[in-house]
From TrEMBL:
Keyword terms of this UniProt record: Oxidoreductase
A GO CC term attached to the entry: cytoplasm
Organism: Roseovarius azorensis
Every FAD dependent oxidoreductase domain range: 3-324
Name the UniProt record assigns to this protein: Glycine/D-amino acid oxidase
GO MF annotation: an example: oxidoreductase activity
Highest taxon of the lineage: Bacteria
Pfam name, any one: DAO
């Protein structure tokens, strides 16, 4: 019998399961579609912070989670003997006009105040081949952003869980405390029960290019993430589509993303497209994760709504959900509670 049953083997479900296993709980994870079958099986893997200003609980939580990520993924890699592709190599963003340059320099100071010396946000000259086009000749470089390979990260979590005696199954009976991390399907269940929009799936498209920049920072330019991975590829993405007919198909919108990535980072010109990916990311109405007691299922819990920041939030979400479910200690930010989206 399990102490904890996690329904859903995306990044939230697997991370919560891992945090519970680390505290000695017997854990079972059940997902009929297998680990990383939804949005967590994507290709981009950008772990990036909010801008260091207008601080709130969501930004603070994400900051702390990004700071925790090195130890979190290092522990997973050691237990699994498998790399999740994690590396904290920072991020570069072009500064396109004088107003942006003034704002970026002001944020240097706010980062010193808010990031507590754990990371830096700096304005630098745009120098070197691996740089985005910058109209001012300057870029922002932060040292907090990191990358991982989404599919490898899910595979590493599964291997780590099994190495510690947890079960990861396609089907089975729930026992003990139940945590539902079922992504878009879980949000649709809430929509139907409450008769209004609680959350929805937002389609994203991304691509993998054959270009080796594995030890270089990610780039964010013209709304596109350009993320080098340790396997010698670069991932680019993504779209945010609320209206779609085919959630798993790619189209001309991805072609535009690739073109914008190449225009922003010219060294990618001519890089072969190895893979095109599309899928749905679960977005709660509040735009924050939904964590806490399940709104429909008495005695159960929910961890949903990762949207674009699920991997970046995962270490912190695993910790607070384990606190709540195993120890009855509630450290969940107010804005993350399910009622914020109901």
């Amino acid at each position: 019998m399990a102490d904890i049953t996690v329904m859903g083997a995306g990044i939230f479900g697997l991370s919560v399961a891992w945090s519970c296993v680390q505290r000695g709980a017997r854990v079972r994870v059940i997902d009929p579609f297998g680990p990383g079958a939804g949005a967590s099986g994507g290709v981009v893997g950008a772990l990036a912070p909010h801008v260091p200003e207008n601080w709130n609980d969501k930004k603070a939580f994400q900051f702390e989670s990004l700071v925790m990520a090195g130890a979190f993924w290092g522990g997973v890699a050691e237990a699994a003997d498998l790399s999740p592709g994690y590396a904290r190599l920072g991020r570069v963003q072009p500064i396109m006009d004088e107003a942006g340059l003034t704002l970026a320099r002001r944020r240097e100071q706010s980062a010193r105040d808010l990031w507590l010396g754990k990371a830096a946000w700096r304005v630098e000259r745009a120098e070197g081949e691996w740089m985005p086009v910058s109209a001012t000749g300057y870029v922002i470089r932060d040292t907090l952003s990191a990358r991982l390979h989404p599919r490898r990260a899910c595979a590493a979590l599964v291997a780590a869980l099994r190495a510690r005696g947890a079960e990861v199954l396609h089907e089975g009976a729930a026992s003990g405390q139940v945590i539902r991390a079922t992504g878009v399907a879980g949000l649709e269940e809430l929509n139907a029960a409450f008769g209004r929009l609680v959350g929805n799936g937002v389609k994203g498209q991304g691509a993998v290019l054959a270009y080796d920049a594995r030890d270089l920072p990610q780039i964010f330019a013209d709304g596109v993430h350009v993320v080098p991975h340790e396997d010698g590829t670069v991932a680019v993405g993504s779209t945010s589509e609320r209206d779609y007919d085919e959630p798993a198909s790619t189209d001309a919108q991805l072609d535009e993303v690739i073109a914008r990535a190449v225009a922003a980072v010219p060294v990618l010109d001519g890089a072969r497209v190895l893979e095109r990916w599309a899928g749905l990311r679960p977005r709660a109405r509040s735009r924050a994760p939904m964590l806490g007691p399940h709104p429909l299922r008495r005695g159960e819990f929910i961890a949903n709504g990762g949207f674009k920041i699920g991997f970046g939030m995962a270490p912190g979400i695993g910790q607070v959900m384990a606190d709540l479910v195993l120890e009855g200690v509630d450290h969940i930010p107010e804005g993350f509670r399910p009622e914020a989206s109901l």
